[in-house]
Design a protein that fits this description.
Elements lengths: L2 E6 L5 H14 L4 E5 L4 H7 L5 H10 L1 E4 L13 H8 L4 E7 L12 E7 L9 E2 L4 H9 L10 E2 L5 H17 L4 E6 L7 H15 L5 E6 H10 L6 E4 L1 H14 L7 E5 L4 E5 L16 H13 L3 H17 L13 H12 L1
Parallel strand pairs: 1-2, 1-3, 3-12, 5-10, 8-9, 8-10
Antiparallel strand pairs: 4-5, 4-11, 6-7, 11-12
Helix pairs in contact: 1-10, 1-12, 6-7, 8-9, 10-11, 11-12
Bound molecules: nicotinamide-adenine-dinucleotide.
The site of nicotinamide-adenine-dinucleotide has 18 residues, from loops.
Length: 350
C-alpha cells in the first residue's frame, strides 16, 4: 500500500527541488501517494494567504510532509510561513544531521553528528516589549535596578515540559539510530534559572538512559570552539532554541554548506522534512541549485516512516554521485543542473 504524504513544493527554487526529490524517492521503490498542498508567495497571490488552512489540514491528516523552501516576504506583514507551520503543528524539535561526504569541500572528513534544537521556547517565543512600553517599564521596576531605564526587553521562557520533551527526543533519537552520546549545551553558568533548568531536566532524563547512552554537558561558547577544533568528538547535541539556531548553521558550514544540509521538524503527531536552506529566489526556474539537501531530508522521511533499507540506499546513491563529481551542481564544483544531478541519483538507485 502507498504511503499518503503531503508534498509542499514551496516557492522560489522550491518547486523544482520538490519535483526532482519526489522522483528520486519514487526511484527507491517506496510507493508514495503525494498529496500536493501549497504555501508561499505564489499561492498568496491566488488565495490571499501564504499558508492556506487546507495545507495545514493536509499535514495534520497525513502526519508526514516533505516541504520545499518558502520565502519570507519582507515588509508585507506576513510572518514566516516556515515558523507558522512549526507553531501551528507544535513541531517542537528541529533535527539537523551534519555529516561529511567525500567530494564536498570541507576542512573536515570525519563529522557525523546530529543537532537537536528546541523549536518553541526560549528567546524565540516572541515575548518582547519595546523601550518605554508599559510592560517594559513594569519589568524594569521589579528588576531592582538591574535593568536600565529605556531598555527594550525580550523574555526567555523555558519550561520543564519544553525542556523534558526535547531532551527525551534527543535520547530517543540516539537509541533509535545507534548513537552513543548526548551532549546538552547551554550557558547555565550565567543563566542559572532558564539554562539551569535545561540541565536539571536533562540530567534526570539522562538517568533513564544510563548504561545505554552517555551524557555530557558543554557551555555554548566552549562548544563553538570544540566543534571547530574536534567535531568528531560529538554525536547528538541537544540545545535550547537560540543556541540551536546558531550552532546548526555553524555545523552546516563545517560539513560543506547549505546545499547538503537536511532537516526535519518533529512534533508529537506530525513531522515535516525540509532542507536547512531557503528558497534561493535568484536561482528560481534556472535548474541550478543543489537538490541534495532536500533529497537527504527525504531520506530522513523514509527513515521516519520505517523504510530503513530504502533510506540507506538513497543515502548511498547520493554520496556516490557526490563522490564521483561528474553530475553535481555548481556549489559542489560541477556544471550539472538540479534535474541532471537528480537523474544521476536515480540512475544509481536502478
Ligand atoms: P537561501 O538559503 O535561500 O540562499 C542563500 C544562498 O545560498 C543562495 O543565494 C545560494 O547561493 C545558496 N544556496 C541556498 N540553497 C542552495 C542550494 N540548494 N544549492 C546551491 N546553493 C544554495 O537564504 P536567503 O537568501 O537568506 O533566503 C531566501 C528566502 O528563503 C528568504 O525569504 C528566507 O526567509 C527564506 N528561508 C526559508 C527557509 C525555509 O523554507 N525553511 C529557510 C531559510 C530561509
Amino acid at each position: 500500500m502507498a504511503y499518503k504524504i503531503t508534498l509542499v513544493p514551496g516557492d522560489g527554487t522550491g518547486p523544482e527541488l520538490a519535483e526532482v526529490t519526489a522522483k528520486v524517492v519514487e526511484a527507491t521503490g517506496v510507493k508514495i501517494d503525494w498529496e500536493i498542498a501549497h504555501a508561499g508567495i505564489d499561492i498568496m497571490e491566488k488565495e490571499g494567504t501564504p499558508l492556506p488552512e487546507s495545507t495545514l489540514k493536509s499535514i495534520a491528516k497525513n502526519k508526514v510532509a516533505l516541504k520545499g523552501p518558502i520565502t519570507t516576504p519582507i515588509g508585507t506583514g506576513f510572518r514566516s510561513v516556515n515558523v507558522a507551520i512549526r507553531k501551528e503543528l507544535d513541531l517542537y524539535s528541529c533535527l539537523r544531521p551534519c555529516k561529511t561526504y567525500v567530494g564536498v569541500k570541507s576542512k573536515y572528513n570525519n563529522i557525523d553528528l546530529v543537532i537537536v534544537r528546541e523549536n518553541t521556547e526560549d528567546l524565540y517565543a516572541g515575548v518582547e516589549y519595546p523601550e518605554n512600553s508599559e510592560e517594559a517599564n513594569k519589568i524594569i521596576e521589579i528588576s531592582n535596578g538591574k535593568i536600565r531605564k529605556e531598555s527594550a526587553i525580550s523574555i526567555k521562557p523555558m519550561s520543564v515540559f519544553g525542556c523534558e520533551r526535547i531532551v527525551r527526543f534527543a535520547f530517543d533519537h540516539a537509541v533509535k539510530h545507534n548513537r552513543k552520546k548526548v551532549t546538552a549545551v547551554t550557558k547555565a553558568n550565567i543563566m542559572k534559572y532558564t539554562d539551569g533548568l535545561f540541565y536539571k531536566v536533562a540530567r534526570e532524563v539522562a538517568k533513564e538512559f544510563e548504561g545505554k547512552i552517555e551524557y555530557e554537558e558543554r557551555l555554548i561558547d566552549n562548544m563553538c570552539m570544540q566543534l571547530v577544533q574536534k567535531p568528531e568528538l560529538y554525536d547528538v547535541i541537544v540545545l535550547p532554541n537560540l543556541y540551536g539556531d546558531i550552532l546548526s548553521d555553524l555545523c552546516a558550514g563545517l560539513v560543506g554548506g547549505l546545499g547538503v544540509a537536511p532537516g526535519a521538524n518533529h512534533g508529537k503527531d506530525c513531522a515535516v522534512f525540509e532542507a536547512v536552506h531557503g528558497s534561493a529566489p535568484k536561482y528560481k526556474g534556472l535548474n541550478k541549485v543543489n537538490p541534495t539537501a532536500l533529497i537527504l531530508s527525504a531520506k530522513l522521511m523514509l527513515e521516519h516512516i520505517g523504510e530503513i533499507e530504502a533510506s540507506k540506499r538513497l543515502e548511498k546513491a547520493v554520496s556516490d554521485v557526490i563522490a564521483e563529481k561528474k553530475q553535481v551542481t555548481y556549489d559542489l564544483g560541477g556544471t550539472a543542473g538540479t534535474r541532471e544531478m537528480g537523474q544521476a541519483i536515480i540512475d544509481k538507485l536502478k
